[in-house]
Write a structure and sequence with these properties.
Layout (H helix, E strand, L loop, with lengths): L3 H15 L5 E3 L8 H4 L4 E7 L2 E6 L10 E6 L5 E6 L9 E6 L2 E6 L3 E5 L1 H10 L15 H8 L6 H6 L9 H10 L13 H21 L11 H4 L30 E5 L2 E5 L7
Antiparallel strand pairs: 1-6, 2-3, 3-4, 4-8, 5-7, 6-7, 9-10
Helix pairs in contact: 1-7
This protein binds a DNA duplex (13 and 13 nucleotides) through helix 6.
Length: 278
DNA sequence: GCGGAATGTAGAT
DNA sequence: TCTACCTTCCGCT
């Protein structure tokens, strides 16, 4: 269950494990039609933008005559399982298995399909800038996001989840970055100051880079950890330490106010009504 | 064993 | 604003 950091980590892990190595591809579930076309071919590149993962095949995967990309989006349920070869017999839910010296099993993705370089470019075009990219182009330019945010009456909580505005932020990073900056999630985007946006973007970059490195989301500053403050740690465990995400009714790590939750655009929003003011 | 929830998105209305 | 889709896991019977 991924936000952008998971996808960038997967791009790196696929590059390390599979680029330039003899591969065995299979689709045990029978729902990935690209297996036949890619049989015997070499993975030559990987890429990530927001929550979209791309695995490139062909001498020049960006424009060569044999260029193909596997486009993968994990959605809410998609999950990877990694291990050392030989892989055990796959279960019926494995959409895609890639095997070299190690193997990766993909289950439950929203998308797993072959796309052309042009189709890949179209996906980049409809995504906003990604705090984790470092291409020096439109795909990581925070000014593009600010242009949308600063003109919008939509709440900052909804804007942060809109992949056309910012690519890669999900429900955990949204809740946590708004908490870290003391921003009420219901504030309209146009009410934010440029300074607030710059700080949010810089923080997302730092937090999400940590997420890629550690393969989990940790957002709590050392001085606010349960160990440092003596407050009880959150019971639920999604793999990291956070201020408000899924800490409903538990005391805020800073002020002790019960953390609030409310549905917003089909997702649960979490915030501290005391620390996050309009 | 069942129901609900989960780090998500697309498409219909 | 709603529904559908995909899979796993946890808490409750």
């Amino acid at each position: 269950m991924p936000e952008g950091h998971t996808i960038h980590r997967l791009a790196r892990d696929h590059a390390d494990a599979f680029v330039g190595r003899p591969l065995q591809l299979s689709g045990p579930q029978g729902r990935f039609a690209g297996v036949e076309r890619l049989r015997g071919r070499e993975m030559t590149a990987t890429d990530a933008h927001g929550k979209h993962l791309f695995l490139g095949f062909g001498e020049d995967p960006d424009e060569g005559p044999d260029a193909d990309w596997i486009h993968i989006h994990l959605g809410l349920f998609g999950k990877y399982t990694w291990g050392l070869a030989p892989a055990p017999p796959p279960t019926a839910t494995v959409r895609l298995r890639i095997q070299a010296e190690s193997y990766a099993d993909l289950r439950g993705p929203t998308a797993c399909a072959l796309v052309t370089p042009a189709e890949k470019a179209a996906i980049h075009d409809r995504l906003g800038p990604d705090p984790l990219r470092d291409a020096g182009d439109a795909t990581d330019d925070p000014a593009r996001a600010w242009a949308r945010v600063s003109r919008s009456r939509t709440t900052i909580a909804a804007l942060l989840m809109d992949q056309k505005v910012v690519a890669g932020v999900g429900n955990v990073y949204r809740a946590e970055v708004l908490f870290r900056h003391g921003i009420d999630p219901y504030r309209p985007g146009k009410d934010l100051t440029p300074g607030e946006w710059d700080a949010i973007w810089a923080d997302l970059r730092a937090l999400m880079r940590d997420g890629v490195r550690d393969n989990r989301i940790d957002t709590v500053r050392p001085e606010h950890t349960p160990e440092a403050t003596g407050r009880a740690p959150r019971k639920d465990d999604h793999g990291g330490e956070v201020y408000v995400y899924r800490r409903t009714a538990m005391p805020c790590l800073l002020c002790g106010t019960p953390v609030r939750t409310a549905p917003l655009a089909h997702r649960n929003l979490f915030w501290c009504p005391t620390c996050q003011r309009r």
